[in-house]
Amino acid sequence: MAGSGRMYFGDVDASSEDSAVLNRQFVGDERLKRVIGLSSDGAEIVIGLKGTGKTALGRVAFERFDGIKWFRSEKSYDARFEVPATNLRSGVLMGMIKLFIIEQFVEQLTRDGAIKHGDLDKWVKPFKSIFIRAAKATEINAGFVKIKPSEFFSVDSQENVRAAWDSAIKLLNDVLQTKPSFIVLDDVDTYFVGLENHPRFIEGLCRAVREINALTSPPIRCLLLLKQGVWRSLFERPEEYDKIKHSMEFLRWDLLGCVSVLCNRIAVIRDKPKAIVKSMKDAQQLLRFEFDGDADVIVKCIEEIFSYSVNGPRDVIDLCNSIRREYPTDKITLAMVTERATRFSEEKLYALNGDFGHIYPEIPQLVQAVFQGFKTQFGAVELRDRLEEGVLNDPKSAKQGFGQQSWFRDATANSFVKKFFDVGVVGIARPHREPLFANEDNSVSQNVLLNSQLLLHKAYRLALGLA
Description:
467 residues; alpha/beta; 3 domains; five-stranded parallel beta sheet; three-stranded antiparallel beta sheet; globular
């Protein structure tokens, strides 16, 4: 519960937060206007690192949607399976995945009582008979369809898939008629197990979401929330990326955005009105409840906390919670931030596995090998030379865990500079401005990076022995 215990400033996991509290705290109304669900032409796929607010965005959009709705997350009881290895192209997978999503939606509506079991039976029986080659892949279980993915996703007859799809849409048309519906797909890598290792399936999923959103009868909106590491698996090995890229929205955060989130957590704790933060001055009244010093001192403290944030609001809340656990009653000071930052830095280093470990196994160990004993700011050429001479051509690297990975063996020093930027370890230094990291702009090219002055993200410095 916010304001007490180990999560004074609230839960860092938006999926565990009370929906009414989350709705009250939410500060991303402009973002809501740019996503489908509350906008007819919004983004259909929202992408971000862990902690950037994907789940919060999806839950608030879901909360505010007026109509029939289904939020699919790791906490749902619906079917989950291991994504099978397949040579099917994303366009073929698209048809199967959209059918699977709609079938799960039908089941949820049946559980909710919106669809009667008698009506469901009329659809389920032809569903099984339609899939002649997949007869062994489907079975009826308590009125629902149980799918064996290894066989279901090997079916190559699009005519059969279309027939099952048409049957499902007819059922939904009969039941929903003109009632608007909203599907939110969150934590997809937890129920499409191994998704991150199958870029064609990821692309097929994205295209399936677009196909569902193209429905007008019945009108269904579908929002896909995707971790940036999963998106990068697709981005590095695409087939038809041009067909989905314009449907995507990347979540980005700046200092004021994170301060706004923090202020509204404080507003809930202190039972104060929600704040509209357009400048640090707007935040001062709420920040003074929890932070020590005058306006300038508080700003410096907040800027220091934000400088450790790789992923956005979650890191800010997490670090503030850590300080509050150590100092339950004292107002937060810069000295307290410095004291708790070392442990936080170690956590962030190994947390790289959470977003990118499936693409770049053992990447925290590589970061240690490259940056320990190096410096916090450097030219891209310096970093490239250090990689070339101190790691890539060092015989000791082959004995390390990262040295045995194909992504390491097959890469060049130049490409590693880009990889370190892509995962948020390094950013571009900008005179008289905040440095640029991938969570603000992930479209920076390798050539631009190689001609830039770079710096190591502050979140990793203490863990690497760099002040």
